[in-house]
Amino acid sequence: MPNRLAEETSPYLKQHADNPVDWYPWGDEAFALAREQGKPVLLSIGYSACHWCHVMAHESFEHGDTAKLMNDLFVNIKVDREERPDVDKIYQVAHQLITQRGGGWPLTMFLNPADQRPFFGGTYFPREARYGMPAFSELLTSVATYFRERPEEVSEQGDKLVGVLDRLHPEPAGDDDAFTDAPLAAARERFSQNFDRDYGGFGSAPKFPHPTTIDRLLRHWRNSANGAAPDLDALYMATLTLQRMADGGLYDHLGGGFCRYSVDRFWRIPHFEKMLYDNGPLLALYAQAHIATGDPYFATVANETANWMLADMQATNGGFFSTRDADSEGEEGKYYVWTPAEVRELLDEQAYQVFSLRYGLGAEANFEGHWHLCIHRSIDDIAKELKLSSDDVESTLVKARAILLRTRETRVAPERDEKQLTSWNALAIRSFAIAGRALERDDLVDSAARAVDFIRGHLVVDGRLLAVYKDGRARFAGYLDDHAFLLDALIELLQARWSVEHLAFAIDLAELLLNYFEDKDHGAFWFTANDHEQLMHRPKPLADEAVPSGNGIAAFALQRLGFLLGETRYLAAAEKTLRAGWQAMNEYPHGHVSLLTALEEALQEPEIIVIRGERVEIERWNASAARLYAPRRLVFSIPADADNLPGALADRKAVAGEIVAYRCLGTHCEMPVSSWEALAAEISGS
Question: What is the pLDDT of residue 683?
Fold first, then answer.
């Protein structure tokens, strides 16, 4: 008989609906029952594309004796961390404080039901003792005994934990303290120290893409490009990493898109889950790298990634799905790997020769007796060895990849989590807007606009933004990331295609941030709104995680919108956020990259160009501007018939029969110009 999770919309929770564990979703019912029965709460947090979550579920949650022990000793709560990042953030930090180890998923925490405070925890626990860990059943018994026999210690530990959590918010910098670029320079130095100069990326295995770091390096190079000593090493670190990631097995060479991370330093073998929140930022990054360097390879990777997102991740309603699982038919990576015999059967002899040289089928198997595709040889090398032209090799590879992809699509595909998350959709919208301009693809801008319309139509209820859409239901009050990421995305989309409705939506989001999330006393933004469900702690996250910092993006986007509209309240909120994060940026700069980029635009105010005129002509000007990599430049092409514009835009008037461009650096504006040549001369050195 299914448990209570059968009524949930989350695919991850539904995966546990037939467990013998008597699971509850997060909520008052579970905690009230635990208090009534005098039991601790076992909180298990995971997500549908998490391999080790599936392992623990199979070993323990589907095991009758283990489930009975869980039911007898605990009230059990299962949480999808993608639906409830508020709950996940709290207990991930609590886990680190309690265990002095990094967190992750599955997260297993034991809570006092009186106050939701944890007293013990861990991540994955095996059913049988191994890996230096006790059997899960032994742990369950010990934890339940501790809770029953030492209630004073449980309560005391909870009090201490809350005290530490409350002290995690540093004091803001004083109003008279001047910002400097010292944290930016310190982060640049730390990136260099951590850089793998052989294979790209940062640190050793496992290696994550870290798009915010690569973006920071590109921005650093661009800021130095007009100076006496351009930072070519920053450009090298960024481009080598992008090249190696796309050459390796992190990238799907048949279908496009990137997996979550590489288990080795060489980018060869990934953890095979595909996440929307990785692929959105990476799409934007490869498109921008193409503009910055002119390298067509980066454009190819961006186009293929965009095509995969369109085909596999965008729903008919316009919104984007969340993830593709790592496993299919119970095996990680099975969907993606090949044997030489399988490939030889599909291709003629010459095509097989070319494909085998390109992707290393003649080398040893690299994944459990199979071959996961990575680029081994350049096209020119293959052409020379086989006495073919490079064009012939490229054409052969295109056809061969298409043949293998069609065959792969007949396999059992990994499960797709079809939740539609506002924050992750915002990352995709931003990336499609950026890539649409950079790659001159209107279809990507169309898709971004469709996703915004989906959010406006399904995830805004009574003027408030919600976080999750699934099975026709919008649920959960929107978090900081939902509002900040979407505001940032709308500012990018407005540059790709002007829309009065999208500008109004952006202003609404900015007002929601200030009214419901801003810490008016100490600056920055809480992760949850001031009318959100009461939890044991209210986080104010400043550091980047797998996604950028909501506070960093809020400061960045509010600054940009503030300069565009001349709205000082937005600029003040952004400045207060930077003051709240100033200590963190100085102490751990490479962990606060999103805040650093907002800081950079506080120190060097963004360049904002507003072009007015007939639509066809202003779009031509916009396209010309989009061919230049200038990350601190914003270009808005507003048709002449757009009127009643808000704030400072009301002064950017159209002139009958002419195109006119208004250029401002922060609050300093120059005389308007009426020719592209004049505008190009103004922006050539910026």
Answer: 85
Tokens of 30: 């579970």
C-alpha span between 136 and 287 (Å, rounded): 47
pLDDT at 131 over 90: no
Pick the CATH number of 336-410 from 2.160.20, 3.30.460, 1.10.10, 1.10.287: 1.10.10
Q: Sketch the domain layout of the chain as residue ranges.
A: 4-166, 336-410, 479-604, 607-683
Q: What is the mean pLDDT of residues 463-470?
A: 98
Q: In this model, does residue 671 exceed pLDDT 90?
A: yes
Amino acid at 521: D
Query: Which segments of 123-205 are extended strands (E)?
Result: none
Q: Exposed (0-12), middle (13-18) or buried (19+): which is 355, by Cβ within 10 Å?
A: buried
Threshold 0.85, pTM exceeds: yes
Q: How many helices (H) and strands (E) does the chain have?
A: 25, 20
Residues 6+ apart with CB under 8 A from 524: 172, 518, 540, 542, 551, 576, 577, 580, 581
Binned at pLDDT 50, 70 and 90, residue 515 comes out as very high
**Cα–Cα distance measured from residue 7 to residue 570, given in angstroms and rounded to the nearest whole number:** 41
Give the C-alpha separation, 69 to 422, whole Å.
38
Residue 180, CA distances (Å) to 212, 221, 243, 359, 585 in order: 21, 18, 33, 48, 11
* C-alpha distances in Å from residue 368, one per residue of 51, 269, 272, 325, 337: 16, 11, 14, 19, 10
Beta-sheet pairing, 117-122 with 107-112 = antiparallel
Amino acid letter for position 103: G
Backbone angles phi, psi at 522, to 5 degrees: -120, 0
CB atoms within 10 A of CB 684: 9
The DSSP secondary structure of 390-438, one letter per residue, reads: HHHHHHHHHHHHHHHHHHHTTSPPPPEE--EEHHHHHHHHHHHHHHHHH
- What is the chain's length? 686
Give the pLDDT confidence score for residue 634 in this predicted structure: 97
Mean pLDDT across 45-52: 92
Whether the CB-CB separation of 326 and 49 falls below 8 Å is answered with yes
* Per-residue CA distances from 213 to 238, 452, 596, 601 (Å): 8, 27, 11, 16
CATH of region 4-166, choose from 3.40.30.10, 3.30.450.20, 3.50.50.60, 1.10.132.100: 3.40.30.10
Contacts of 152 (CB under 8 A, 6+ apart): none
Mean pLDDT value of segment 394-400: 98
State mean pLDDT over 266-279: 97
The helix/strand/coil state of 469 is strand
Q: Answer whether 110's CB lies under 8 Å from 157's CB.
A: no
Say which amino acid occupies 348. D
Q: Which helix (H) or strand (E) holds 25?
A: strand 23-25
pLDDT band at 685 (very low <50, low <70, confident <90, very high): low
Q: Give 338's DSSP letter.
A: B
DSSP 539-575: ----S--SS--HHHHHHHHHHHHHHHHT-HHHHHHHH
Q: What percent of the chain shows pLDDT beyond 90? A: 92
Confidence band for 189, pLDDT divided at 50, 70 and 90: very high
25 pairs with which residues across the strands?
A: 78
